[in-house]
Write a structure and sequence with these properties.
This protein is α/β, with parallel strands linked by helices. It has 11 helices and 19 strands. It has helices at 8-24, 79-87, 99-102, 111-126, 175-186, 188-205, 230-254, 295-298, 309-317, 319-324, 343-357, and strands at 55-56, 58-63, 92-97, 130-135, 211-215, 261-264, 286-288, 291-292, 329-330, 332-333, 360-363, 392-396, 398-406, 411-418, 425-429, 435-440, 443-449, 452-457, 462-469. An 8-stranded parallel β-sheet has the order 7-6-5-4-3-2-11-9. Helix 5 crosses helix 6 (188-205) and helix 6 (188-205) crosses helix 7 (230-254). The longest helix is centred in the middle third of the chain and has 25 residues, at 230-254. The protein starts with 7 loop residues before the first helix and ends with a strand.
């Protein structure tokens, strides 16, 4: 969840600690390669793949209903969300769900809520959109006026909490909220309750065709100890509390679902170019899922290309997947004030960066209106957000050698070596408009229809696919 009004105190502290940590951290060696879906793989960030072994690229948006709960939960999410996203070329949705809606009382799981989640996945399947189910929390949960971990699972030891509605993200640093995270991570009964919640959810959804994976907890935070700066605290929390948490929850999911991808997030501090302290998650299908927000831009500042923020973020965020050989999918990104003078440059720089190392992303947020919404009430892209709609290869049946897109000329090019096993069909997604698609090598364009193209290649063929706008 983006943080629109960070206080000056917390923003300054975060920036100072982030800069210090970035300066002190060793520089990772990185090499430009063409291995993977056109991304800078460094020492070898692997690609996300499907059940046929095809290299996947995910492009999409978060889908949410934070306003309604109980019987009205998820009522703001409709089939229109998925129909409209697919029509504009997007194949991925990160669906926010809340533990407090799923288990309003200990051990009592809402069957109505599970049915609503299933209905949303049915809509996604109908429109060929893959879904990541995100266990979302903001400022822990309803005990503090937000959503996420149920009030019955919130323990504060009587520490104080002062609401700050004009600076909600600073509420994460309230003593009661920080202590609640410590209890969630450390108390055995709460550990078991969170694992049971995930078993219930995964057991209900594991065989759904639209399901891609599970994001185990959104933007986890923790307790800052006396004398720690935020970067040091974040690394300790990630190392000592989040790594065991993710291993426990992954084990719980695997008791009922052996196939879905497990998405794990660092703390939000990674957004300031601080490498994560997360350790190894012992699961064969892990995805690293950081968020991509800048504190200055979230506070209303314009993008400054000379500041080097995107470059710093990219250097930091690629270290974990390079070390542990896991794919990257950015779970949230996108500024609130998208029409400021430099935002056109920001979207172009961001799209280029995200494509260098990641298997995909979910922008924040697909809704119809102002603020963070991707589109307005008529369904038209809001200013500069049309730059997120590019041609891309949804699934490549082989080894990707390179991908390029020139938005000025409207030319997209994919080169890959076709595989010998599994599916031989590569799928392209094309934004709205007229596109001419050609294939060179031992390959042919099987079909082009409604913003999609399918290419069939002979085994081991070197294939170049070109899509030209107009």
């Amino acid at each position: 969840m983006p943080r629109t009004t960070w206080s000056t105190t917390w923003r300054t502290a975060l920036l100072a600690s982030a800069v210090a940590a970035a300066l002190l951290a060793p520089t990772a060696a990185r090499a430009e390669t063409g291995d993977g879906a056109g991304r800078t793989a460094g020492a070898g960030i692997p690609a996300l793949t499907d059940e046929h072994g095809r290299v996947l690229t995910l492009r999409g948006w978060n889908v949410e209903d934070k306003a309604n709960r109980g019987d009205a939960a998820l009522s703001a999410v409709t089939e229109k969300h998925f129909r409209d996203m697919r029509a504009k070329g997007f194949n991925f949705a990160r669906l926010l769900v809340f533990w407090d809606d799923l288990e309003p009382r200990p051990g009592q799981y809402s069957q109505a809520y599970l049915r609503k989640i299933e209905r949303i996945l049915d809509w996604a399947e109908k429109h060929d959109v893959k879904v990541l189910v995100d266990a979302h929390q903001d400022v822990f949960g309803p005990a503090f006026g937000h959503r996420g971990i149920p009030a019955w699972a919130t323990r504060t030891d009587g520490l104080p909490f002062t609401p700050r509605p004009d600076d909600w993200f600073s509420e994460y640093f309230e003593p009661a909220v920080q202590r609640a995270f410590t209890h969630l991570y450390e108390d055995e009964d709460l550990r078991r309750a969170q694992a049971r919640m995930w078993r219930v959810l995964a057991d209900r959804l594991d065989d759904h065709p639209a399901l891609l994976g599970y994001d185990l907890i959104n933007e986890p935070m923790g307790e800052v100890r006396e004398g720690e700066d935020l970067a040091t605290a974040a690394r300790r929390i990630e190392r000592d509390q989040l790594t065991p948490l993710y291993n426990r929850l992954a084990d719980a999911v695997r008791t009922v679902d052996r196939d879905a991808w497990i998405f794990v997030e660092p703390t939000p501090i990674v957004g300031e170019g601080v490498p994560t302290g997360l350790g190894r998650i012992h699961d064969p299908k892990v995805v690293y899922a950081p968020h991509f927000y800048n504190t200055g831009m979230e506070a209303g500042a314009d993008y400054d290309p000379a500041a080097g923020w995107i470059e710093s973020y990219e250097r930091a965020v690629t270290r974990y997947p390079e070390q542990y050989k896991v794919p990257v999918v950015v779970g949230e990104w996108g500024p609130l004030n998208n029409s400021l003078p430099n935002m056109n440059r920001f979207y172009r720089d961001a799209m280029s960066s995200l494509g260098r190392y990641g298997s995909g992303w979910a922008g924040y947020v697909w809704c119809y209106g102002g603020g963070y919404c991707a589109v307005d009430g008529t369904g038209a892209f809001r200013t500069n957000k049309e730059l997120t709609a590019e041609p891309y290869a949804e699934a490549v049946a082989g080894r990707v050698r390179s991908t390029t897109y020139d938005s000025g000329t409207g030319v997209y090019r994919l080169t890959y070596d076709a595989g010998r096993r599994g599916s031989r069909v590569t799928e392209l997604s094309l934004p709205p408009g007229d596109w001419r698609v050609t294939a060179r090598g031992a390959a042919l364009v099987l079909r082009k229809d409604r913003g999609r193209a399918w290419i069939l290649a002979a085994p081991d063929a070197r294939v170049t696919v070109t899509a030209t706008r107009g």
